[in-house]
Amino acid sequence: MDADPLVDPLADPLAVELIGIHKRFPGVVANAGTELKVKRGSIHAVLGENGAGKSTLMNVLAGVYRPEAGEVRVLGARRVFASPSAALAAGVGMVHQEFRLVPTFTVAENVVLGAATRVLHMGTVEKQVADLAQRFSLDVDPQRQVWQLSMGERQRVEILKALWRAAEILILDEPTAVLTPQEADELGSIIRQMANDGRSVIFISHKLHEVKQYCDEATVLRGGKTVASSLKVEDLTSPQLAELMVGDATHTIRRPEPTQACATLLMVENLHALNNRKLPALRDVSLSVHEGEIVGIAGVAGNGQRELADVIAGLRNALSGSVRLFDRDITNASARQRFRAGLSYIPEDRVGVGLAVQLSITDNAILRSYRQHRRGPLIATDRAKAFCAEIVSAFKVRAGSLDQRIAELSGGNLQRLLVGRELTAEPSVIVASQPTRGLDVQGVTAIQELLIDARNRGLGVLLISEDLDELLAISDRILVMHGGRIAAQYVGVDANRSAIGLAMAGEPA
Amino acid sequence: MIRPLLVRREKPLPGGQPLAFVLGSSVALFLGAALLWVAGDDPTEVYQRMLSASFGDLEALSATINRAIPLALAGLAVAIAATMGLWNIGAEGQILFGATAAAWVAQIGNAWSGPLLIVAMLVGATFGGALWALGPAIAKAQIGVNEIITTLMLNEIAVRFVRYLINGPWKDPEGFGFVQAPALPDQSELPGLFERAHIGALVAVAVLAVVGLMVSRSSWGYELRIAGSSGATATYAGISLKRKTLAVLVLSGAVAGLAGGIELTGNATRLTETVSNGYGFAGIIVAALALMRPSGVALVAVLFGAVQVGGQSIKAIGVSDAVSTVLQALILFGVIAAGVLVAYRLELAKAKVHSL
Q1: What is the set of domains in chain A, with CATH numbers?
Q2: Which 8-state DSSP code applies to residue A41?
Q3: Is residue A221 helix, strand or coil?
Q4: Contact between B238 and A313 using a beta-carbon 8 Å cutoff
């Protein structure tokens, strides 16, 4: 269907219509026929778990990605965007999770950056920006430099950027993730004003109370498909939304036979810690992992899971509280001491933390054990290679040669190498952060089987995952993290999806 | 509209960096010839003269080798730091301060025997270079101050410091009014090998071999490469980034300082503020062309030594020695560009015009 010039854009009540969007990445189908309809002058929530395809869909609408199939209609006209600036010219502006601002530029300079086609008088621009800011209660001084601003203020600059470019449709990708609750409420009233002004706001979130509080309609995505379209938010309860988001409970759960839980291997008590922005990330977290047990940690990204794993592994300091391995207090032990004491760690960032991308397979395989492969001051290459070859064959890492850079390996092979290295050390506890994220089905199964196998051999596994299916399938117990706390605990048969979904959203039943 | 696009090759061209080097240098020589021709000189004559002055006989070869020594050591200094992703832009100052330290040792050990004095001066120079890098190393390791800035600025301070010494406390009383440092004792001159070449070449080769082996094969060098690839991975493996930063920058300074000591004992008669002669900056280019690998540094240093010696020789036929500087720059550009083409291929693509 071609663009119809005769359609009067004002006659169409829809600001955005996405029809049958397909978008595939190597090994992953992000959108499989996704649909979205957004009315003019409304705030529309797009809900879904991590990996449901929300961000991809929004990037399609904002001109960042081009879909393989499907149709994008904006203000009644069919569009094919070649770039984000083409989308902006058509009225679609997006505020990404990571702000794209120049810290040493002023607010006004950031607003015009990239949009100025001729010499501008900064005074005039500052006036325009101040007017816009006042009109939508976006309280920010146009003359201040961005590095001086709080995260909430920076977000307002991003919104101003879109408004100054006359965006009719504003996409906010998880806008409250970086905000304090007060700032989030202010944002809520800002977008309400924009909607009252006739603009449309697409609000991406997985926080149910925000959706209930700020939005008019909601579309729910799951596994790249639209499972519920343009629901009236006021007609829905949080449990209904949660159930739509995580799916029905009829899913078959493959749970390994519980082993006889005995000795406590890992004991975490009253742990407090800060995140990278020096804000509290862990508040009074206590948990334990026993012999032959997989303890799953569920939660929406950014609720303290990453910090928990880092504190346990010794990559982040605890403010207070303790971490014990067997009877040994390792709260202040170094990462290397913890590893020697029997604690292995599969970090969330495989490449960049767990593996060094520029180096060879062998160099990465001996990361934990290079001191044992020494001959005098030199590393015995033959012994290192033999050690690497064992991991590669035992864990079926497919590689051309052991000297190959790991950058040439696929995601699944990288993870096999990493998990293999950590398991070869014969640890007693293994902390695995998002161990299957981004892998294809085969890779996921292989890694899950390795973890179950480790558990059956008596290891304690702390499995941190955003994939609820995975947690339900292989955990013996599930703890839900929310706001830096353990919000709920479910054991075996008690675990049910909608209850966990609600706890993840901060509203335990 | 047609515009060029760089597309990554499935596999880089066989030959890799050596191929890029030959290609890039050839292009550089060709462009240099064109420039000479435009300037009204005969490129063949100029190139012939440069070649015979740098490789024509043993005497020429010895001059080239003597030049290559400080270039190789400065290149090695830069390459070691780069292994961990750090930029030592201060080799120039470290060479100069190393030479200053050696000159100081020579004043103390005026009456010592030759071998003892030479060893003491070279050790002093090594410590001097290390000391000059210590400040930036501590600032980087403890509070993350950008080492590029600090090492760069210390170059200027080293020059001013030597100027002060020569004009003040170290002013030669027998200088007949000339402002200069006192002459070095005769026994401080490095023993010769052949023609003008001296044993500094052997010292440099030994240092290159030992440090090269350390970086590529030792567990210390392994930790360095891990830290250079990803700081977070190093922390994960229990490697202290602070200690590594400190060690690698100080070692880098020490190697550059040694170059200053060899330069002073091998080629100079007294300390001057120009003893470092730009070797520290040229070392950055040498290291870059060697892809920051100690093994490649020696070869590139000999080539650059030859270009510099050749450049000096053509002044005799009335051609500016700036030709040498221009050629060095062209080689750098040429090899880097050729390096890109080894990994990428050029495609002419039609820019798509999308209607809104």
Answers
A1: 9-246 (3.40.50.300), 264-504 (3.40.50.300)
A2: T
A3: strand
A4: no
Residue type present at position A58: M
| In the block, residue with structure tokens 């020429």 | B60
pLDDT range class, residue B108, cuts 50, 70, 90: very high
Q: Is A231 helix (H, G, I), strand (E, B) or coil?
A: strand
Contact B75, B287 (CB under 8 A): yes
**Encoded tokens for B322:** 């700036």
Strand partners of residue B162: none
Tokens encoding A286:
């206590």
Question: Which residues lie closer than 8 Å to A58 by C-beta, 6 or more apart?
Answer: A46, A94, A171, A173, A202, A204
pLDDT digits (tens, 9 = 90+) for A245-284: 776 544 444 555 655 657 889 999 999 999 887 888 999 9
Contact status of A5 with chain B (Cβ, < 8 Å): no
Backbone dihedral region of B110: left (phi > 0), alpha (psi from -120 to 50 degrees) or beta? alpha
Q: From B83, which residue of chain A is nearest by alpha-carbon distance?
A: A358
Q: Are B235 and A345 inside 8 Å of each other by CB?
A: no
Give the pLDDT mean for A420-437.
92
Give the Cα separation of B304 and B306 in Å (integer): 5
Give the number of other Cβ atoms within 10 Å of residue B340's Cβ. Answer: 12
- B350 inside 8 A of chain A by CB: no
Identify the three-state secondary structure at position A142: coil
Helix (H, G, I), strand (E, B) or coil at B175: coil
Handedness of CA B163, B168, B172, B176 (dihedral sign): positive
pLDDT of residue A259: 56
ipTM for the predicted complex comes to: 0.81
Q: Where are the domains of chain B?
A: 72-290
> pLDDT (tens digit, 9 = 90+) per residue, A5-46?
444 555 567 899 999 999 887 656 788 899 999 999 999 999
Neighbours of A377 (CB within 10 A): 12
Interface of B with A in 231-270 (CB under 8 A): 232-233, 235-238
pLDDT category at B18 given cuts 50, 70, 90 is confident
- Chain A interface mutation, best of B84, B215, B217, B219, highest count of A Cβ atoms under 10 Å: B219
Q: What are A145-195's pLDDT values in tens digits?
A: 998 888 888 888 999 988 888 889 999 988 887 777 778 888 899 999 989
Which structure tokens are listed for A61?
A: 């609408």
State residue A53's pLDDT score.
84
pLDDT digits (tens, 9 = 90+) for A392-420: 999 988 887 888 888 878 778 889 999 99
Contacts of B114 (CB under 8 A, 6+ apart): B187, B188, B189
Angle, CA A153 vertex, CA A150 and CA A155 arms, to 5°: 110
Chain B residues in contact with A381 by the CB 8 A cut-off are 217
pLDDT at A27: 58
Residue B15 neighbours by CB distance under 10 Å:
12
